[in-house]
Write a structure and sequence with these properties.
single chain, alpha/beta, 2 domains, 8-stranded mixed β-sheet
């Protein structure tokens, strides 16, 4: 999902981190957003307005009283168009002005007039950032409903090491996407997603696992977060970057996943079990590496906890339970049997045998199996499939 039709105002103050906003502006344009750039006079000393005009295709605004382009009252016109404003880098000086309602240039005048969501990314010397006056000003901004993006820790341009470094453009983009990408139709809901494989140890070196990468579960967690849900992601070992703004619980074994899920389950409105949990584990785990010998090795396996069945038996009224079924044959028959046996509301079924579906890829083809029938979702990117699954869950919760 992109930002087409959205107008993002980037407001730059004087600081070396201003150069990073050129990358962010380019990212937003690629997301099809309209980008308007405001700069203080000091900001223009670090990066030229022409840079942003070339990247965004819109005029960069600095002077409140510049009438060379139109007769519009610029700060009001920009404020009316804005869907979101990000002040980044935000200097201690401009943070103080915003916190106290001072509007003495194009940037502060426009930001004061905006009624849209406002984000501030402080970037300054560690001593300035930690100064009680700056912290009080940031607290006041939070009280006004402004979202303050915590700075990163690291080596700053002044040579100090500590908090005060502006986050990277990708992180700033994620904050913008969180506000603008989706309708917040899951606001107020608590949702738990499981993702990835589990590992069942044979000895300190070896383990039993499967080919799951966790991508479908991670896309579900991201999609629910973008739609306003409070998301808990219980993840087995994966190489994926976790989605932002979710509570991540990392586990290794099926037993650890069971314990984490059952502890969090009572507080959830929706639980989606997308993880590929091992059905069996070694009955005995060796304390030392099992050495190769001339004879064959026989492994005794024992069942792991059936998490979905336990959730189905223990769930509270109104809680929606969705499981996944990965099959190599008799897809719908096996999914229907799982739906009934586990006490779930929905099973998302997909086949390992089908091209473009299953483990590892960027796409998936699934069938939603419910007590009233089946809905086939055509092959699509896993991000789109995630939203379609959530659409159906919301419809079911609404009684459809």
């Amino acid at each position: 999902m992109d930002l087409k039709g959205k107008t993002v105002v980037l407001a730059l103050t004087g600081g070396i981190a201003a150069y990073k906003i050129a990358t962010l502006a380019s990212m937003l344009v690629k997301q099809k957003a309209t980008v308007l750039v405001l700069m203080t006079e000091n900001a223009t000393r670090f990066i030229a307005p022409l840079t942003f005009e070339a990247l965004t295709g819109t005029r960069c605004m600095v002077d409140t009283f510049d009438r060379s382009f139109s007769f519009e009252i610029e700060h009001v016109a920009v404020a009316d168009r804005a869907d979101l404003v990000l002040v980044a880098p935000a200097s201690a000086n401009v943070i103080a002005k915003m916190a106290n309602g001072i509007a003495d240039d194009m940037l502060t005048t426009t930001v004061l007039a905006c009624r849209c969501p406002k984000l501030v990314a402080p970037a300054m010397n560690t001593g300035m950032y930690e100064n009680p006056a700056t912290q009080a000003n940031l607290a006041r901004l939070r009280g006004y409903g402004v979202e303050v993006i915590d700075p990163a820790c690291g080596r700053l341009a002044c040579g100090a090491v500590g908090p005060g470094k502006m986050p990277e453009p990708q992180q700033l983009l994620e904050h913008i996407q969180r506000h603008l990408t989706c309708q917040k139709d899951m606001a107020g809901l608590h949702l738990l997603v499981t993702a990835g494989p589990t590992r069942e140890a044979l000895d300190p070196v070896r383990f039993i696992t499967n080919h799951s990468t966790g991508r479908m579960g991670y896309e579900l967690a991201r999609a629910a977060m973008l739609r306003g849900a409070q998301v808990t992601l219980v993840s087995g070992p994966t190489a994926l970057e976790p989605p932002p703004f979710v509570e991540l619980v990392r586990v290794e074994s099926a037993q650890q996943m069971h314990d984490a899920v059952m502890a969090a389950a009572p507080a959830q409105d929706v639980i989606i079990k997308a993880a590929a949990v091992a059905d069996y584990r070694p009955a005995h785990t060796a304390g030392e590496k099992i050495k190769k010998s001339g004879a064959d090795l026989t492994l005794e396996l024992t069942r792991t906890p059936d998490i979905l069945a336990e959730l189905g038996a223990a769930r509270r009224p109104g809680q929606f339970l969705c499981g996944f079924a990965m099959e190599t044959r008799d897809l719908l028959d096996n999914a229907r049997a799982k739906l009934e046996k586990k006490g779930a509301d929905m099973i998302v079924a997909n086949s390992l045998r089908e091209a473009g579906a299953g483990f590892g890829g960027a796409t998936n083809h699934v069938t939603l199996v419910e007590p009233t029938g089946c809905t086939d979702l055509p092959l699509a990117g896993k991000d789109e499939v995630a939203h379609r699954i959530l659409d159906r869950i919301l419809a079911r919760r609404a009684g459809a």
